[in-house]
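Sequence in, structure out.
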Amino acid sequence: MQAKRANQHNIHRLIVAAGRNSRKFLPKPATSFIMREYPATRESEMDKKPAVVLTPLGLAVCASLFGDMTLYTVLVTQLEVVGLTLAAVGVMLGVNRLVRIPTNPLVGWLVDRWGRRRLFLAGMTLGVLSTAGYGLVYGFWPFLLSRAAWGIGWTLINVSGTTMALDISTPANRGRVVGTYNAWMLVGFTAGPLLGGYLVDTLGFRPAMLTFAGVTALGLLVVLFFLPETRPRQTDQPDDGLSGLTRRLRSLWGRRLALVQAHRGLIATSGLYLLMLFAGEGIVLSTVTLLLQQRFGERMALGAVVVGVSTGAGILLGGRSLLAGLVGPLAGHLSDRKTGRLPMISLSLLLGIASFLLMSFGRDLTVVTAGIVLSAVSAGTGLAVVTAFMGDQTPAGRQGAVMGLYAAVGDVGSMSGPFLAFALATRVSLAWIYLLSAVLFAAGFGLVYLSRRATAS
C-alpha cells in the first residue's frame, strides 16, 4: 500500500512539473505595440519616479509646438509666401483653437475609456502632418485645413498629456508635477519663436516648417518607445465600441456640465483659466509683433544690435516663455507646501494687471520689455497653480472628463484673444486692448473669492 501511494505521489509530481515546463512553449497573448505594458506602468513605480513619464511626455509636447509657435512670430511677415492676407492672420492663429472647443470633451471621454497613450500618439501623428502642411500648401483653404488638423492634434496631445500628469501626481506633489509638465510645454513656446525666426531668416519659411515637422516626428518616436500608459486600473471602463458612440455623444456635453454643477468650485476655476488664456496668452502672444512694429518700426535696437521686428518679437516671446517655464514649477511647489493655491493665483492676477498697464502706456522698449517679463511670471504662476487647483477638485476617476472641459474652456479664451485683438486693432490702438485685458484680470479676483467659498463649503 505504501509503495502504491509513493508511486501515485511521484506521478503527481511529474504531472505538475510537466505542466510548469509546458508554459515555456505556449505562445504569449498577442498585444498591440501601442498598448503594451511597460515595467514603469506599475503605479508604485510611477509614484516614486514621475520622471519616467514626464521626460518622454514633456519632450514630445515640446517638439510638437515648434511649428505652431513659429507662426505667431513670422506668419504676418510671410503673407506672400503662403498666399494669405493680413486679415486672415487672426483666423489662422485662432481657428485651431476653435476646432478644439467641441473636440476637447470628446477626447476627455475617450481618454477615460481608451487610455492616454494611444490618443497621445494619434495627436503627435497629426502634429507631424499639419506642420509639414504649413511648408507645403498655398492659399487660404489649404492652410486653414492644416491649422484645423493641428487643432485636433493638439487636443489629443493636451488632454491626454495633462491627464497623464494628474495620473502620476498626488495632492502632496501635484503642483510640482503639473508645473514641471507646463515647463516642458513652455520650453516649446520658447524654442518655437527663437528657432523659428532664425530658420525662417536663414532657410526660408517652407524649409523651416518641414524641419520642424521632422522634429515633431522625432518626438513621436520618443513616445512610441518610451512613454508608458498611466491610466489607473480602477478607472478601466467597458468599451462598448462604435455601436454606442453616437448615443453617448448626444449626452456628452450635458453629463459634463452636470459634473461641473455638482462640483461648483470647478466653475470659478474654469473662469480663471478662461481669463488667463484669453488675455495673458491669446492677446499677448498674437500682438507682440504688431505692438513692436507700431511702436518702433520695422527694425529695433536690442542693446547695441539692430534686428528686424520679427526677430525682436521672437526673442521677447521666447524669453517670456522661458521665464514662465522656470517660474511654473516653483510656483506649483510653493502652492503645494507654503501658500496654498488661491494666494498664488491672486499674485498671478496682480502681476498680470501690472504687465498690461506697462505694455499699454510704455513707449520705451525697456518699459515694454518689463511688461512682457511681468506677463511671463504671471502666466507661469497662473497656469501651473490653476491646473493643480482644478486637479484638487476633480472627482476620482473623472480626470479625463474634467480635463476635457477644462481644455475646452481654455481654448475658448485663447481662440477669442487673437480674433478680438486683430478685429479691434483696425479700430482702436493696442493700448485700449491691453487696458481691457487689465480690467478682465481685475475681475478675476471675484472668481478667486467664489472659488474660496466653493472649496470652503
